[in-house]
């Protein structure tokens, strides 16, 4: 074996060992519950590519931004409770009114808790909160097939980092997750009419015609 070849093999071996010795850091603050299994990336590449190619990805992102800008996406809970108070019900009624405008859109509800209590208990509590929101939205005329209460984040994504009781951490968040499979208005080349129909309707000028005599009169100040 020549000296040149030996040198190349040695460099390659060192690089391989250096790559194997590296460690990855998993942050529970930026991943869904369970994402640690398999690195959280299983199937994501295919899903993302499919959504981008058929145009769904950009629409989902756009609808997500619009939902969070036009309605309050978060409701809060009392300590160790999954009961919806009057404020939560008012917010969810607002969400339901928005959701009813878009029968082709699906939603996920994520549950959260504060850091008081065990991890297992808090995950279960977060999921109960998410299910409570889904049940309420269903009672407002939203099809249950369009709503999903996912495995909760539990205590792992606080808005306020504290070990104590914190109401802002005891919450659910409603988000756009995709589109109803096979819905006749989805991906038919006219989807802008759905996304922007509210804006189109708001631009219509109401008639000011009040009567016809010898001349046309209009209302005004």
Automatic annotation (TrEMBL):
GO CC terms: cell outer membrane
Domain OmpA-like: 63-180
Subcellular locations according to the entry: Cell outer membrane
Chief place where the protein resides: membrane
CDD domains associated with the record: OmpA_C-like (cd07185)
One family name in Pfam for this protein: OmpA
Keywords, comma-separated and alphabetical: Cell outer membrane, Membrane
Presence of keyword Membrane: yes
Entry coiled-coil feature ranges: none
Family matches, as InterPro entries: Bact_OuterMem_StrucFunc, OMP_bac, OmpA-like, OmpA-like_sf
Highest rank taxon of the organism: Bacteria
Protein name: Outer membrane protein OmpA
Organism the protein comes from: Thalassovita taeanensis
């Amino acid at each position: 074996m020549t000296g040149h070849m030996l040198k190349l093999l040695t460099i390659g071996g060192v690089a391989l060992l250096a790559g194997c010795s590296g460690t990855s850091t998993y942050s529970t603050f930026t991943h869904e519950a369970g994402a640690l299994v398999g690195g959280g990336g299983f199937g994501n590449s295919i899903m993302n590519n499919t959504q981008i190619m058929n145009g769904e990805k950009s629409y989902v992102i756009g609808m997500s931004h619009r939902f969070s800008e036009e309605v309050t996406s978060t409701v809060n809970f009392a300590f160790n409770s999954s009961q919806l108070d009057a404020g939560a019900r008012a917010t969810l009624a607002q969400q339901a009114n928005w959701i009813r405008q878009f029968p082709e859109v699906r939603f996920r509800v994520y549950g959260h808790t504060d850091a008081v209590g065990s991890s297992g208990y808090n995950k279960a509590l977060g999921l109960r909160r998410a299910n409570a929101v889904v049940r309420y939205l269903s009672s407002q005329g939203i099809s249950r097939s369009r709503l999903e209460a996912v495995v909760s984040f539990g205590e792992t994504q606080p808005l306020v980092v504290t070990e104590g009781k914190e109401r802002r951490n005891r919450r659910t968040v409603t988000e756009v997750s995709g589109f109803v499979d096979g819905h006749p208005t989805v991906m038919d080349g006219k989807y802008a009419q759905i996304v922007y129909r509210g804006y189109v309707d708001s631009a219509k000028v109401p008639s000011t015609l009040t009567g016809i005599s010898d001349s046309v009169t209009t209302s005004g100040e």
